[in-house]
């Protein structure tokens, strides 16, 4: 058994879904005559659960309306991304190596369970993960460290030995606040923007057991 574990964010790490999420957001928001710029999306939305960003955009809304909007937006996303579903380069070989080395792996996403199932089962990679956490499993979204504290606890490992794989700034902040090493993926931000990360990579192509062990 390896002496470290991995907590994977999903959107932007397991699959580069953010372009499809952006299209879905634009389509969803246009129905309500709302437009958001790229900086707002990067700063406030990516890596943030629907239950937190939707009230920021729509202000005072009740829980039923929030749930309706969230389901509406994510249904649009799954429709758009259905034909584009693709793993980040190197993911399959990386997961096989982690399985061979007996590294515990957890998916820790701000996305709803429907999206988690859609991507994990669509890529046929469920067997490589021990734990699955999504928006229904935590109260406070990233950048709060709750989800990564929970990830380590669920895998029965200390946070300093639970390496976080992230692409969003809020996710990197979350991982670091939990006391974990963080690998930043350049799907959403540059390495300069992700300066809190301990390591910055393009994808999984050059990421392996020995590299992670050094963290």
Characterization of the model:
This protein has 215 residues and is α/β, with parallel strands linked by helices. It is built from nine helices and six strands. It has helices spanning 18-30, 38-45, 50-58, 63-81, 91-100, 113-122, 146-154, 169-177, 209-213, and strands at residues 5-8, 105-108, 131-133, 162-166, 182-185, 199-201. Strands 3-2-1-4-5-6 form a six-stranded parallel sheet, covered by helices on one side. It is globular, with a radius of gyration of 16 Å. The chain starts with a strand and ends with a helix.
Distance between the termini: 17 Å
Overall shape: it is globular
- Please state roughly what percent of the residues sit in beta strands, choosing from under 5%, 5-15%, 15-25%, 25-35%, 35-45% or over 45%: 5-15%
Main beta-sheet strand count, sense and barrel state: 6 strands, parallel
Mean pLDDT: 93
Strand order of the largest sheet: 3-2-1-4-5-6
Give the total of beta strands.
Answer: 6
Which spans have pLDDT < 50 for at least 5 consecutive residues? Answer: none
- Number of helical stretches of at least 4 residues: 9
Run of helices and strands: EHHHHHEHEHEHEEH
Portion of residues within helices: 40-55%
Secondary structural class: alpha/beta
Question: Whole-number radius of gyration?
Answer: 16 Å
Oligomer: single chain
